[in-house]
Design a protein that fits this description.
The structure is a homodimer. By secondary structure, the first copy, chain A, is α/β, with parallel strands linked by helices. Chain A has two domains: 33-78 and 159-336, Rossmann fold; 82-141, no CATH class. Chain A is built from 13 helices and seven strands. Chain A has helices at residues 3-28, 38-51, 82-94, 107-111, 115-120, 122-134, 139-152, 168-179, 192-203, 242-250, 266-273, 309-317, 324-327; strands at 65-68, 183-191, 210-222, 225-236, 257-260, 283-288, 320-323. In chain A, strands 4-3-2-1-5-6-7 form a seven-stranded mixed sheet, with helices on both faces. In chain A, helix 3 crosses helix 6, helix 7 (139-152) crosses helix 9 (192-203) and helix 10 packs across helix 11. The first copy, chain A, is globular, with a radius of gyration of 23 Å. Chains A and B meet through helix 9, strand 3, strand 4, helix 10 and helix 11 of A and helix 9, strand 3, strand 4, helix 10 and helix 11 of B.
């Protein structure tokens, strides 16, 4: 073998080693849909720190609690919350049994697709819609209604089931945290019984790790069958200052990591990461929607998922801000197929 | 070797084999503090049935949810609920900061050890006591108060910490269920934040698997530190018909096994075991306190832990009833030392 072929051979072997290493890294990269920018590095550094036995930042497994907002953090919340789309669909499908709805607001507006009048009805109108469509049946009946709807409903822009409009980088993050001994919880302003029928399948988060808003239920024995009847009465709103209370009520320990995208998540992020008595490593992250092309762009001036105060707080408190456009290689799982 | 020595030798070998088998059985018996009577057999049969892959009664691991009442089911509730003993102790230790209590009921009665007047004050008086001793501080402060109290307080009869007055057979049952893929939850009428500081250590049940009564909390940022302030306002009473609602709210799926001891557990047992839509194997068990010598004897006529309707329902619904006197070999862990 003369010098040239030896050189080429050596280069080739070097190239092979390089490619093999790159391949191995690609195969073992737990966050392949994240670009190699700041947020990915911050996540990995945090996880490595809290899982390194003997390190001063080590956190015992039972205390590795991570909480995730849902709308806008794990799945799309624009142009309207999916749960509102569900309520509107329910009004339409139940309208034949409610002839009075044709003449009564906010139902009339829904049936006439008059979003302007609906919006003018404000929060009062929305609560009426929610109660009319989420109460008045048993928990099991509601679970079936949600399960059937989520299997068939399609988003207007992407023409896909809502459960496909989840963020691939966040799915990877959930799995990465669990692989590192974290228990992952959802803490959402959305209805707890609207999420539970599908969170395990879609996010790997079981029903008992879902925290959300709820209405009151009433236990009744009917012909020997126990039922929980859903009353048209608010039990708990798991949003803003409610999130720490909901987390405390259902988990009973302080999370060490919180993931949100809006001002509704501000107090959850504060509760998780701040405070003189809250020792040890903590991690806060905000998903900033700035990719109108692949998803949506909104922050300080929007009706759903307003990100204003929390964005300012992120800078002050050293929370990681995900710039969707530059930090996420892939947005949706279907892009990978 | 002549015939006699061969005979003796054979008998000896036989005896050894017998002893070894007995020893192996004793070592592998997951419920050694249970006598070999009906309840133990029923528990083992149920667990073997739902864990046997391929059997029609097989239950997938995530659905193996078991719920346990606490007072009278996992630990002693006589002569008064431990949480009430805590409230009385707190009134006494806080009295110097509340000179007005000397002249105000129900505090006056507590300070004078006048149980008769206290009892006459009824539920209204009790709620006042609970609010005065359980609210008005942050969650973290309350957690520390409970942790300190439970470490030092002693029961009047057994002269031991309350956390030693737990039932050894139930500790074995909790461990046996978990070893078979069950997730064990507490669903107690007691305060959720009164239990959480010690349930993991004592029962192996982590905070997030404790359901209980609660008062409202309010999130506040104080000098940059987030706090949850405990308000003197009832949030949820996890007793009687409240238990199925609490279980549904926090777990979000139907348990397949429930363990209680009083009428306060009736609806939880119904919710767990009954109903046309509630298919598959289900298990209900009631601890019947009938051992005044080793513990206490009470059922249909008692102030704490009344067992009347639920005892009748047990016969109708085929729930297992534990007769403490005959079914439990050991009552308390300290008997084993």
């Amino acid at each position: 073998m003369h010098a040239f072929s030896r050189l080429v051979g050596g280069a080739f072997i070097g190239l092979c080693a390089f490619l093999a290493a790159a391949l191995a890294q690609a195969q073992t990269d737990p966050l392949p849909s994240w670009n190699d920018t700041g947020p990915k590095a911050a996540i990995v550094a945090f996880v490595e720190k809290v899982t390194k036995a003997g390190s001063p930042d080590f956190v015992a497994e039972p205390d590795r609690i991570a909480v995730f907002d849902n709308d806008g953090t794990l799945w799309v919340e624009h142009p309207m919350y999916t749960q509102l789309a569900f309520a509107l669909d329910r009004v339409k499908s139940e309208a034949p049994s409610h002839p009075e709805w044709k003449e009564t607001q906010p139902f009339k507006a829904v049936l006439e697709d008059d979003m302007k009048t609906l919006a003018a009805g404000g929060e009062k109108g929305l609560v009426e819609l929610i109660m009319a469509t989420h109460a008045g049946m048993t928990s099991e009946e509601f679970q079936k209604i949600v399960t059937d709807w989520i299997a068939t409903a399609r988003d207007g822009r992407f023409k896909r089931p809502y459960t496909e409009l989840v963020y691939q980088p966040m799915l990877e993050l959930l799995a990465y945290l669990r692989a590192n001994g974290f228990k992952t919880f959802i803490a959402s302003g959305g209805g707890i019984e609207f999420m539970r029928p599908w969170t395990e399948k879609v996010y790997g988060v079981p029903a008992e790790q879902v925290i959300g808003s709820s209405i009151k239920t009433q236990f009744e024995m009917k012909d020997g069958t126990p039922t929980l009847f859903r009353l048209p009465e608010v039990n708990f709103i798991d949003d803003k200052a409610g999130k720490p209370s909901g987390i405390n009520e259902q988990i009973g320990r302080r999370p060490i990591a919180a993931f949100g995208n809006s001002d509704g998540d501000l107090e959850m992020l504060q509760w998780t990461t701040l405070g003189s008595g809250n020792a040890g490593p903590r991690f806060g992250l905000i998903v900033h929607h700035n990719d109108a092309e692949r998803e949506y762009a909104y922050d300080r001036n929007t009706e759903f998922g307003k990100l204003d105060e929390a964005l300012d707080a992120a800078a002050v408190n050293n929370w990681t801000v995900v710039d969707m456009k530059t930090d996420w290689k892939t947005i949706f799982p279907f892009e990978l197929k």
